Each structure stands twice: as C-alpha cells, then as structure tokens.
User: Which sequence fits this backbone?
C-alpha cells in the first residue's frame, strides 16, 4: 500500500513538472512589458532640448511618433537621443518578440512663454505640497507623474493668483499644466476663470468649465489652453478644484486635490 502511494506521488510530480514549461510559455506571452523611461533636458523650449527613451530589457525595440498618433512597429524606431526644436507631443511604445507590448508613454514639449514679472497669491498651497516657492508655476520646469515631485503646487481649495508682466505684451493664450491622478485623489480642475487687463483697472473676463473624468486612470500630465489674443499686462487667474469627489470613487464626498506645475503665457 505504501509503495502504491509513493508511486502515485512521484507520477504526480513528474506530470506537473513536464507540463510547467508549456504553461509558463503561455503566461509569458500575456505578460506586458513596462513603459520606456523618458528623460528630457527641458520641456519648455527656447532653443533645443534632448529627449532620451530607455528600457533595460534585452531584445526590446522602442518606437515613437511626433504627430499625435499612437506608435506602432511601423513608426519611427528610437535609436538615439532625439533633438527637439519645436513644441509637440512625443509618444513612445516598446515591443518585444516574447512579451506583450507596453502601454504608451508620452512627453509634451511647450514653447517657453513670456516671462512673468511677479505673482501674488491670494490663496495658499498645502504645506505638504508647496513646490519650490511662490514662483513654482513660472520657473520653466515641469513636474513628473509622481505627485511628490517638488515641481507641483498642491491645493485642496481654489487656487487664486494675480500675475504682472514687466511691459505690456501680446499674449496668444495661457497654458495651465496640471496632474491627473484619481487613484491619489488628484483630479483635473473643474472651472477656470481668467481676467486680463492693460491698465490694472479694467479687466476682461473669460471662464471655462473642464470635462470631468469618470473612472480611475494612470497618472498623466495634462494642460489646458485659455485663449487671450490681445495685448495685456495684468492677469488674474482662479482655478477651482473638484469640490466633492464623485460617487464612483472610494473617496466619494471628500475634497479632491488640485496639482499644477506651470502657467505659460504664450506669444
């Protein structure tokens, strides 16, 4: 009887070991490789920036696009750092013959804007997320998807500030950069009001509502452009956060966070 039990046990081990490589192969084909890591010398361009993509996995090829389309194996093959001269969006995806291709990762480049002479804050960022000081939103440095990056200003209330240019200048638009990371309770702005003036007394008002999100998504860098299209010297900006996290979220009913990194006055 004991001999039978031993024989059955050994047969069970042998059978499972024999099948394991095939099962592993099937699982390997479904495992997704990680996104390439992107590093840029600068994302606000006044001359030239360099963009590097890397992924430490032998046999991987990285493809990219510059026209806003999703990369495929028919897109540009990344072989060396890319020289970036003009603003735009660079999207990357990694491929490997034995693994599922990566998700898309992107890096957005902006034209360096008109220098802001001064920023007066009428509301305060959180002590936990106060960036590098009052000029965080005008230091020509973008934040990463990590909300702990010191380039982010974090608010749990309305963000309100007054900007002044050194001289009256034609401004095409105002770009406001922000972070979307709903799993960390960080949501896009809900409402933005911009007031512009030449003399500091008579202001023209523009208000926009932003589309709300309806589910959890990966952390991403976003921006919104507010058209101005005239000479100005003074700007008042009020950015309202989501006052209450929606019902589909685990934090429903609580205040949402608003994270911003750069305000760019485009010419």
Assistant:
């Amino acid at each position: 009887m004991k001999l039978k039990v031993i024989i059955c046990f050994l047969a069970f081990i042998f059978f499972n070991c024999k099948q394991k490589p095939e099962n592993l192969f099937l699982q390997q084909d479904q495992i997704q490789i990680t996104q390439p890591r992107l590093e840029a010398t600068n994302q606000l361009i006044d001359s030239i920036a360099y963009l590097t993509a890397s992924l430490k996995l032998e046999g991987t090829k990285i493809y990219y696009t510059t026209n806003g389309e999703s990369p495929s194996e028919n897109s540009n093959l990344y072989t060396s750092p890319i020289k970036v001269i003009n603003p735009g969006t660079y999207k990357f995806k990694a491929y490997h013959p034995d693994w599922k291709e990566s998700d898309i990762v992107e890096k957005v480049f902006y034209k360096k804007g008109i220098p802001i002479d001064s920023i007066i804050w009428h509301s305060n960022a959180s002590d936990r997320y106060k960036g590098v000081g009052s000029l965080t939103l005008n230091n020509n440095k973008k934040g990463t998807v990590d909300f702990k990056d010191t380039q982010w200003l974090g608010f749990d209330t309305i963000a309100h500030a007054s900007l002044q240019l050194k001289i009256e200048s034609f401004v095409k638009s105002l770009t406001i950069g922000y972070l979307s990371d709903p799993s960390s309770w960080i949501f896009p702005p809900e409402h933005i009001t911009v007031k512009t003036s030449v003399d500091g007394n008579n202001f023209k008002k523009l208000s926009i509502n932003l589309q709300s999100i309806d589910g959890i998504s990966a952390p991403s860098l976003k921006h919104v452009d507010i058209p101005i299209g005239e000479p100005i010297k003074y700007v008042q900006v009020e950015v309202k956060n989501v006052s209450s996290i929606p019902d589909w979220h685990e934090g429903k009913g609580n205040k949402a966070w608003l994270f911003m990194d750069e305000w760019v006055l485009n010419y």
In short: The chain has two domains: 37-110, 113-266. Helices lie at 2-30.
